[in-house]
């Protein structure tokens, strides 16, 4: 799955240990692809079934506008929900309501917290105290960089947006068949 998110996995900021836990183990990459696909599906359907049903609105410019809106929506969703925001100390104190926050529920911050959750004895499964301290320090560095817009935030957002645009182009072909007025938008192939 990391192949699909080449901008993230090939960047020098990608940590094999903690980033893999969120993006591979907790399906962060798969969720990003699913979000990109759903947004592309909705925007393609909107263009071909709503705008493409009339000669006056079935224009290539409207298709490009739908593509741009889909990409902006995908970038926003991947940034605010899939990468998320770090909760404040007050929100951490009220942990019961923390999981209901959309900016935390699917975020990398939740995965980082979950990765270092101790068992009953206060020990993280399979780690020595020194390893746990090292990972805790790395987690704080990653969270701090993410809060500043760094780390893999921008790469993940861009990669998800690229996939959304690709899905829009792919979904164009089957939707064109169902829209007689927008059959040649944005390109004539395969008709």
Question: What coarse outline follows from CA principal-axis ratios?
Answer: elongated
Order of helices and strands: HHHHHHHHHH
Poorly predicted segments = none
Secondary structure tally: strands: 0
Mean pLDDT: 83
Structural class comes to: mainly alpha
Proportion of residues in β-strands? under 5%
N-to-C CA distance = 34 Å
Q: How is the biggest beta sheet arranged?
A: none
How many helical elements? 10
Proportion of residues in helical segments:
55-70%
- Cα-atom radius of gyration: 21 Å
General description of the model:
The structure is a single chain. The protein is mainly alpha-helical and 191 residues long. It is built from 10 helices and no strands. 30% of the residues are buried.
How would you briefly describe this protein structure?
With 191 residues, the chain is an all-alpha fold. It has ten helices and no strands.
Strands, helices and their partners?
Blueprint: H1 6-9, H2 18-25, H3 28-50, H4 60-83, H5 89-93, H6 95-98, H7 102-105, H8 108-115, H9 129-147, H10 153-177
Helix pairs in contact: 2-8, 3-4, 3-10, 4-10
